[in-house]
C-alpha cells in the first residue's frame, strides 16, 4: 500500500511538473483567462477519473480487498468558506498543495515559505479539530 | 521534458492516478490529506506513514526527477511576486500568508484542487462541486485584482 502511494505520487508529481503546474506564470495565465491549457488539462483529468471510478464502483479494490464505494457529502458552509480562503491563497502564491510539493522537488527555494505556511495552516486546523480526517 | 506535456496526455494521466488509488485502495486521492498525514504523524513523533504520506514523498520525488532529467527547474524567478517586489522579505511574507490560507482553507473545505477539484468532482460529490466552483471563482477574482493593482 505504501509502495502504491509512492508510485502514484511519483507519476502525479512528474505530471504536475511536466504540464507546467509548478510554474506560477502558467497558473496566473490560466486564472486571467489568457491560456486555456489548465482548464482543458483539468477537465480531461476529471472526465477520465469519473469514467474510471464509475467502472470500478461495486468491484473489489486490489490491495485492500474492499467493496469500492463512496458517499456524497451534502454542501455545508465550511466547503464554501474554506474554498474562499483556499482560492485566495492559491491566487496569491499561484500554487496549490500538489505543485508546492513538486516545486520543492524541483529545487524552487521560494516554495519553502509557501510550504511553511501550509504546514502551519494545517497544523492549526488539526489542533482545533483532531478528528477531521476527510482531507 | 523541455516542452510542456500536451494537456490531452497530462490530464488523462492525472485522472488515471485517481482511478489507481480507488482501484487499489478504495481511497480518495488528495494532496491536502497527504500533507495532513505527514504533519499528524511527525507531530506524534512517528515516521510510520500510511500510503498518503508516501504519496506526498512521491510528489516531491516526481518534481526532483523532472528537474534532474530536464537539467533545470523549468522556470526562473517566481511569477508576479518576483516581478512586483524588489524585497525578498515581502515575497517570503506573501508566500507564507498564502500558504496559511491554502492549508487552513483546504482543511476547512475538506480538500484542495486535487481532493475536491479532481477526486471529489469525479465522484459527483455536491460538496466537492460547490468547493471547486468557489475556489476557482475566488482565485480568478483575486488574480484580476492583483493584476489591476500591480
Task: Give me some keywords for this one.
heterodimer, A: 135 residues, mainly alpha, 6 helices, 66% helix, 0% strand, globular, B: 150 residues, 76% helix
Give structural notes.
The complex is a heterodimer of chains A (135) and B (150). Chain A has helices at residues 2-18, 24-31, 37-56, 77-93, 97-105, 111-128. By secondary structure, chain A is mainly alpha-helical. In chain A, helix 1 packs across helix 5 (97-105) and helix 5 (97-105) packs across helix 6 (111-128). Chain B has helices spanning 7-25, 31-43, 51-70, 79-84, 88-109, 113-122, 126-149. With 150 residues, chain B is an all-alpha fold. Helix content of chain B is 76%, strand content 0%. In chain B, helix 2 packs across helix 3 (51-70) and helix 6 (113-122) packs across helix 7. Chain B has 7 helices and no strands. The model of chain B has no long low-confidence stretch (mean pLDDT 96).
Overall 3D form of chain B: globular
Q: Mind telling me the C-alpha Rg of chain A?
A: 17 Å
Give the helix tally of chain A: 6
Strand count, sense and barrel status of the largest sheet of chain B are: none
Please identify the oligomeric state: heterodimer
**Largest interface, Cβ cutoff 8 Å:** A-B, 108 and 113 residues
- Helix- and strand-based class of chain B? mainly alpha
Strand content of chain A: under 5%
Q: Which structural class fits the helix and strand makeup of chain A?
A: mainly alpha
Distance between the termini of chain B: 32 Å
Please summarize the sheet with the most strands of chain A. none
Total number of β-strand segments of chain B? 0
Summarize the structure.
With 135 residues, chain A is an all-alpha fold.
Amino acid at each position: 500500500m505504501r509502495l502504491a502511494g509512492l508510485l502514484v505520487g511519483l507519476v502525479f508529481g512528474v505530471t504536475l511538473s511536466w504540464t507546467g503546474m509548478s510554474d506560477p506564470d502558467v497558473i496566473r495565465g490560466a486564472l486571467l483567462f489568457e491560456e486555456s491549457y489548465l482548464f482543458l488539462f483539468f477537465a480531461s483529468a476529471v472526465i477520465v477519473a469519473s469514467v474510471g471510478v464509475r467502472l470500478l464502483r461495486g468491484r473489489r479494490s486490489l490491495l485492500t480487498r474492499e467493496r469500492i464505494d463512496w458517499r456524497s457529502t451534502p454542501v455545508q458552509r465550511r466547503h464554501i468558506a474554506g474554498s474562499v480562503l483556499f482560492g485566495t491563497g492559491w491566487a496569491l502564491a499561484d500554487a496549490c498543495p500538489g505543485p508546492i510539493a513538486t516545486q520543492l522537488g524541483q529545487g524552487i527555494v521560494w516554495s519553502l515559505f509557501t510550504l511553511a505556511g501550509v504546514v502551519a495552516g494545517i497544523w492549526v486546523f488539526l489542533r482545533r479539530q483532531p478528528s477531521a480526517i476527510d482531507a | 521534458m523541455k516542452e510542456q506535456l500536451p494537456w490531452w496526455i497530462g490530464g488523462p494521466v492525472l485522472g488515471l492516478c485517481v482511478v489507481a488509488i480507488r482501484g487499489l485502495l478504495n481511497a480518495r486521492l488528495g494532496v491536502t490529506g497527504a500533507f495532513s498525514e505527514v504533519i499528524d504523524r511527525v507531530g506524534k513523533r512517528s515516521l510510520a506513514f500510511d500510503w498518503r504520506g508516501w504519496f506526498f514523498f512521491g510528489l516531491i520525488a516526481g518534481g526532483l526527477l523532472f528537474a534532474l532529467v530536464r537539467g533545470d527547474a523549468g522556470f526562473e524567478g517566481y511569477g508576479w511576486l518576483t516581478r512586483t517586489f524588489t524585497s525578498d522579505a515581502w515575497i517570503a511574507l506573501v508566500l507564507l500568508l498564502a500558504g496559511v490560507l491554502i492549508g487552513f482553507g483546504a482543511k476547512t473545505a475538506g480538500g484542495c484542487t486535487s481532493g475536491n477539484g479532481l477526486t471529489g468532482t469525479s465522484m459527483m460529490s455536491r460538496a466537492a462541486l460547490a468547493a471547486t466552483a468557489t475556489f476557482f471563482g475566488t482565485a480568478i477574482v483575486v488574480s484580476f485584482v492583483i493584476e489591476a493593482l500591480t
